[in-house]
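Fold it.
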Amino acid sequence: MEKEESIKLDPGLFDFTPDWAKKDAGVSVPRVRPERESGAGQAPGGHFASKKPFAKKFDRRGGDGERHQRFQDRPKPLDAEIRILPDSKALGTIMRKIQQDFHAYKLKDIAYFFLDNPSSILLKITPRGEEKFVQCKVCGFAALDESAVVEHAVQAHLGDYYDSKVVDCEPPKGNFNCVARCGLSGVLLGPPNIHEFNAVVRETMRTKFPSMGEAEYRSHIEMVRDAETIEEWRKGAVKKTVFFAKGGGEGAAELSREQADGELRRIIVPTLIDRPRHLMITADKAAASPVRPLQWLARDAIEAERRAPYNMCFALRGAFHHRKFNFFRANDQRGPEFVSAVEYREFDAAHAIAELAEVAKFVAENPCSPRVDIAGDDAERAKQLDWLVSTGHVVAFTNGVYSPVEKFPKYGPQWQKRRTKNAKREEEAPQAEGAAEAEAPSGSPAETPAAEEKKDETAAQLA
């Protein structure tokens, strides 16, 4: 075990967006969502933040008219079975995070970390009908049409196989009657009768308007016939971009963009295409797919999972069990479920030093206490608390409170409400008893007039 001086617990440890996480998994897992904790679970300083990139991308809320329009635009549902799982890289990052400290994490909060970050949600989709997916092996992009995946591979992965550089060239020679100009950006594309015109159009569309179809983009091209504009284009066309196959060395052939595209399509793209029986795709890739039924299938599944994250919790529970993490429920057998890398054990005060025993006793008598109530400004007492946490003798929750080790460790806000209710009952009980004693005369119980009358009647009958 590490020395005591090195044990420091940060109450604000739910920030899952440090540099190491971004470099390791390529994902940014947001901090705990305040609305799920109702404000009571925030660490001191209120530093928890909320990100909802997936909700923003897939949000279908709005006015009645907007909802009706979206319903009208909804395609025929994709007949497929879908399972929601955590992405393996993101899951590895989360596991290492849990192993690096001694806190207990609420399982449902971890599930929502994934559900709020589309790049960390893995969807396993199995079509029930005749549809078969085609998928890019490099990035996971998927479609039902092979041509869509081919175009994606050419546009997205050309740079993975070819290097490019800008070189000087001679100005175009010849007589030109007109020059094409992009009506959206004002860029001069060149005369439509030059060999590389179509390549220039596609490159401009790819870099400036990637979401626009080629037919739509070409409808915005205009022809300019004045001599000044034609000469302006000629003077500007003194540089060109050339491509070289990666690893080709100094003698690699110089290719135009069209030549590099053609070579990529012919030689490399066929090796990048997969036709899986079960489509494994992250939620952000599903959102970017041209297959709209796939988009809606993912949307519906994620929205249902957000309402009740049973599938994500089930998958996380299995993964954490495999890593030998420990689980417990707080407050009672139906309380929130927590997971921790710490192995908890009861504290043996009889064989401990007095300082440790004193801190453990305080926590046992004051469950759900924040660090400041336990240690205050006492550095030595804080060190003793950290040691108890690191050895599994005290439960440290991620909302900044500490509780003793027991079958159901106390956790707020549920426990705080229960403790407040019990305290209120204890205060009201003596007051109720005092009020009852004050109403009755001393020496005999109080009797109602009806009881007095009944007693007189009984006495008369006996006489």
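Residues 142-274 form one domain.
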